[in-house]
Write a structure and sequence with these properties.
There is one protein chain. The chain is α+β, with helices and mostly antiparallel strands. 24% of the residues lie in helices and 32% in strands. Helix 7 crosses helix 8, helix 8 packs across helix 9 and helix 9 packs antiparallel against helix 10. The longest helix is centred in the N-terminal third of the chain and has 34 residues.
C-alpha cells in the first residue's frame, strides 16, 4: 500500500493508539500498523521495512515506552534510511487534534515526497518480481520519476527501473510508428505515386517488418529457450544490432548440456554431492547410476546394493543454511543460525541446495532453477530447459556443476564461468598485477597479503605481507616492483617484489591516494589524490618531485595514454583529461561522460582505445568507449550494459589486440564486448563474489592460436581465468554456437526440431 502513514508505537500505549487509529479510520486516512498489516507467518522485520519504504509519513507515537522499545528504534532507523518525513505526536494527546495534524502532515509529505516514495516502491517491487515489463512505469509517471534526478541521488535499482521504463516507452512509440508505416504503405501501394516515394515506402515497410520480427524473436526466447536458439541459429547473415540482441538473449540462457532418463518416477539423489557417478534412489529403494563422464549414455542402469543417505547439507565449513517458506518467493540465508541475507525470487521456491563451498545456492522454482550468489544474496541467473518441474537438486563436489531431477529426466548445467586458478575462500582478493614472467602473477588480499601464483597449477610460489589495508595494487611493466595503496590510512608503499621489502611513499597531508600507475620505464609513479591533484613520485627515492594540477573537482583515476607517452586522467564528475607530465601544458579535456559518473578507473587498449568506468557504468549515457582518430582526438561511442544487480564497475580491460574489452561489476558479473560494433555482448554471471580487479596477459611466447587470457579476482577469494575470444563476439559466431547447442539439446532428447519452417525474415542492413 503506497502513500500511507506508518504508525510506530509501543504496545504498552495500545489503548491510546487504538483511539487514534479509530479517528484516522473515521477520516478515511490510509495508515499501516503492524498488528493489521503483518500476516502471522511473515517475519516482522521484512514487512516493517517494506511498509516504512512505502509510507509518505512516519508517525512516532512518542512516549517513554516508545523511546525504550527496541522494535520502535528499528522502525525509526528504517525511517531515517528511507529519508521519510517524521511526525512526533505525544501519547495522551487529544486524538481529534492529533488526527488533524497527522492528515495535514500527510498531505504536505505526499506533495513534497510522494513521487519519490512511489519510485522507490515501484522499483523495489519490479526488481523483486524478476523485473517484468508489466511492472514498469507508464510514460507520464516515468517523466515524473525522471524529474527526481536533480532532487536526490537515485539508487541503482531506481536508475535501472527508470531506464527500463524509458526503453519500454521507446519500444511502444516505435511500434506505433511501425503500425502507422504499415498502414501508410498499405494505402500507398494501391495509389499512383512517384517512383522515388514508392521505393521509400517499400524500404520503410521492410524495416517495419524486420523490427517486428526481432521483437517477436525476443518474446519467443522468453517463452521457449530452445526455439529461441533456433531463431538465433538462423540469424548470422550480418552484424546488425537487432540480430545481436537476439543472439545475446538466446545464448544468455543457461541450458542443460547433459541428461539421461530413469525408468521410475519420484526418485531422489542418493549422495550429498556428485563425484564420479550420479546416483539416484527410487521409491522402492533401488539404486540407479550413470557415470558423470559417460556423456553419450542416455539412461541410468540399475545397481545392486543399498543406497546411501540422501543429501543433508553441504561440505563447507561455513555454517550457512537456506530457509524456505511454503508458498513464498522469499528465501532466507542464515549463517551461524542468524539471518544473514534475504533473497527475492521470481516465483515460489520449491527446493534448494547449497554448493559445497557455500558460495552458491540453487533453488527450484516454477520458472526454472534460480542461481543465487550467497555472498551477495542476489539471483545471478535462472537455469532453464528442464522438461518438467525440478523436484531435487545436487551439486558436484567441486561446485562447478548442478544436477537436477525433473520427473524421470536427470539434467545437468555447468554453473561457473571460466577456470578457477586459485581459491582461498577466507581471502578478500583486492587486486591482481604482473609478475616478471607470463607464467605467474601476483594477487593482493585486502589484509595486506601478496601472493605469487603459478598460473599452470595455481600454486602459491611466494608470499609477502604489507601493513594496513590494501585498496589497490599495481606493478611496473617489468614486474619488479609494486605500489600498494592503503586509502584508509592515506598511505602508499612501494614493494620490491623479489626482496619483499616495502617502503612508504612520502605523501602530502590531505592526499587520499587512489590506484596509481607506473611510468613505462618504472622510474616514476603517478599517484592520483581523490578530489585532488596527481603526484609525480620518484620510485627510487619515494619522494614527490612535482604535481600535476587537475581542474575542479580534482582527480580519481590515472592511466598511461595508449596513444603516446602521456597520461589520461578521470575525475569524480566523469571528465577525462589528457596530460603530458614534465611540461607546463595544463591538462587537455578530452570528454565528459554523459551522466557525469564517478570514474573509478580508465582501461586502455590498442587502437588506441580508452574506456572510463565506475559508478553508473552500464546505464544509458554512463558507458562510453573512446577510439582515437588520426588527429589525436577521440570518437566516443555510447552503449548500454546494465547487469541485473549492479551499476558499479570495479574493473575493465582489453584483449592484447584491442579487439574486445571486458567490464567487471561489483555484483560479480563480467561482460565481454567486441570493440568495433560493441555488440553482441556475452554476459558471464557464474563468478561468485564481487569482481575487484582484472588483468590481461598476452599470448604465450610458444605461439599457437590463443589471444591471451583475462584474469579476474573477486572478494570471495577467487582468481579465475577467462580465455579471450574476440572472434566469438559476432552474430555469425553466435549463430554457429546456437546451432551447436541445439544439436546437443536434440541429442539429449530435450529439443525436437520444428516441423514447419519459420517465416522468412527480411534482410536487415548491416551496422555501420
Amino acid at each position: 500500500m503506497l502513500h500511507h502513514v506508518f504508525v510506530s508505537y509501543s504496545r504498552r500505549d495500545q489503548e491510546w493508539v487504538d483511539a487514534l487509529v479509530q479517528e484516522l479510520v473515521r477520516r478515511h486516512a490510509k495508515f499501516w500498523i503492524d498488528r493489521e498489516g503483518i500476516p502471522f507467518s511473515v517475519p516482522w522485520l521484512e514487512e516493517v521495512e517494506d511498509a516504512v519504504q512505502a509510507c509518505d509519513l512516519f508517525l512516532a507515537c512518542d512516549s517513554d515506552h516508545w523511546r525504550t522499545s527496541t522494535a520502535c528504534a528499528t522502525e525509526a532507523a528504517y525511517g531515517v534510511r528511507f529519508d521519510k518525513v517524521r511526525l512526533d505526536i505525544p501519547v495522551g494527546r487529544e486524538v481529534t487534534s492529533a488526527a488533524e495534524e497527522i492528515l495535514r502532515a500527510l498531505r504536505d509529505a505526499g506533495r513534497l515526497h510522494g513521487t519519490s516514495t512511489e519510485l522507490s516502491v515501484r522499483a523495489r517491487d519490479w526488481d523483486r518480481e524478476g523485473r517484468q515489463s508489466r511492472r514498469l512505469a507508464p510514460r507520464r509517471l516515468r517523466r515524473q520519476f525522471d524529474a527526481l534526478r536533480g532532487n536526490r541521488r537515485l539508487s541503482p535499482v531506481e536508475q535501472a527501473f527508470i531506464a527500463a521504463s524509458r526503453s519500454r516507452t521507446v519500444r511502444q512509440a516505435v511500434m506505433s510508428v511501425v503500425l502507422i508505416l504499415l498502414l501508410l504503405a498499405s494505402y500507398v501501394s494501391g495509389q499512383a505515386v512517384p517512383r522515388a516515394e514508392k521505393e521509400l515506402i517499400e524500404e520503410l515497410t521492410e524495416q517495419a517488418e524486420y523490427f517486428v520480427g526481432t521483437q517477436q524473436a525476443l518474446a519467443v526466447i522468453g517463452e521457449d529457450p530452445y526455439q529461441g536458439l533456433e531463431l538465433a541459429a538462423a540469424r548470422g547473415g550480418n552484424e546488425s544490432a537487432a540480430y545481436a540482441v537476439v543472439h545475446e538473449e538466446a545464448l544468455a540462457v543457461k541450458l542443460p548440456d547433459d541428461a539421461f532418463t530413469l525408468p521410475v518416477a519420484n526418485g531422489r539423489f542418493t549422495d550429498a554431492t556428485v563425484s564420479s557417478q550420479v546416483r539416484l534412489t527410487a521409491p522402492d529403494g533401488s539404486l540407479w547410476v550413470r557415470a558423470v563422464d559417460d556423456h553419450n549414455r542416455r539412461s541410468a542402469r540399475k545397481e545392486d546394493g543399498g543406497a546411501a543417505a540422501a543429501p543433508g547439507g553441504n561440505g563447507s565449513q561455513e555454517a550457512v543454511e537456506i530457509r524456505l517458506r511454503e508458498g513464498s518467493a522469499r528465501i532466507q540465508l542464515l549463517r551461524g543460525g542468524k539471518l544473514w541475507r534475504t533473497v527475492i525470487l521470481g516465483s515460489v521456491a520449491r527446493t534448494a541446495r547449497l554448493s559445497p563451498d557455500a558460495r552458491w545456492a540453487v533453488i527450484s522454482t516454477d520458472t526454472g532453477v534460480a542461481l543465487v550468489d550467497v555472498t551477495r544474496g542476489t539471483v545471478r541467473g535462472v537455469l532453464r530447459g528442464a522438461p518438467a518441474l525440478v523436484t531435487d537438486l545436487v551439486w558436484t563436489q567441486r561446485g562447478e556443476r548442478v544436477w537436477a531431477l525433473a520427473d524421470r529426466t536427470v539434467v545437468s548445467w555447468r554453473v561457473t564461468d571460466g577456470t578457477v586458478v586459485f581459491d582461498e575462500p577466507e581471502a578478500w582478493l583486492e587486486d591482481v598485477f604482473r609478475a616478471k614472467d607470463e607464467g605467474h602473477l601476483w594477487v593482493a588480499s585486502r589484509d595486506g597479503t601478496l601472493r605469487l601464483i603459478e598460473l599452470a597449477t595455481g600454486t602459491v610460489v611466494r608470499t609477502t605481507h604489507v601493513e594496513g589495508t590494501v585498496n589497490g595494487a599495481v606493478s611496473d611493466l617489468g614486474g619488479d616492483q609494486a605500489a600498494v595503496v592503503d586509502s584508509d590510512a592515506s598511505k602508499v608503499r612501494i614493494v620490491e617484489l623479489d626482496a619483499g621489502t616495502a617502503r612508504l611513499v612520502s605523501l602530502p597531508d590531505g592526499c587520499v591516494p587512489a590506484r596509481p600507475v607506473f611510468s613505462r620505464d618504472g622510474r616514476t609513479l603517478y599517484v592520483p589524490c581523490v578530489y585532488g591533484d596527481v603526484l609525480v613520485v620518484d620510485a627510487r627515492s619515494r619522494q614527490t618531485t612535482s604535481t600535476i594540477n587537475v581542474p575542479e573537482p580534482g582527480g580519481r583515476a590515472v592511466a598511461l595514454d595508449p596513444s603516446g607517452g602521456g597520461l589520461v586522467l578521470g575525475t569524480p564528475m566523469g571528465i577525462v583529461y589528457s596530460v603530458s607530465p614534465g611540461s607546463d601544458t595544463p591538462p587537455t579535456r578530452l570528454y565528459r561522460v554523459g551522466c557525469a559518473p564517478n570514474i573509478e578507473l580508465l582501461a586502455t587498449g590498442p587502437g588506441p582505445r580508452l574506456l572510463p568506468v565506475g559508478e553508473g557504468t552500464g546505464l544509458s549515457g554512463c558507458t562510453q568507449l573512446g577510439v582515437a582518430r588520426s588527429d589525436g582526438t577521440y570518437k566516443w561511442n555510447a552503449f548500454i550494459d546494465s547487469p541485473p544487480d549492479s551499476v558499479l564497475a570495479m574493473a575493465a580491460d582489453f584483449d592484447p589486440a584491442g579487439r574486445a574489452f571486458a567490464i567487471g561489476y561489483s555484483d560479480g558479473s563480467v561482460v565481454l564486448h567486441p570493440s568495433e560494433n560493441i555488440m553482441p555482448r556475452q554476459v558471464l554471471p557464474g563468478i561468485p563474489g564481487g569482481v575487484r580487479a582484472m588483468l590481461t596477459l598476452p599470448p604465450a611466447k610458444s605461439g599457437g592460436t590463443t589471444t591471451g587470457d583475462l584474469y579476474v579476482v573477486t572478494r570471495s577469494g577467487l582468481l579465475v581465468r577467462i580465455p579471450w575470444c574476440p572472434s566469438c563476439l559476432s552474430n555469425k559466431a553466435m549463430a554457429r554456437e546456437a546451432a551447436q547447442r541445439l544439436r546437443r539439446a536434440e541429442s539429449l532428447g530435450l529439443y525436437e526440431p520444428q516441423v514447419v519452417a519459420p517465416s522468412p525474415t527480411p534482410t536487415a542492413p548491416s551496422s555501420p
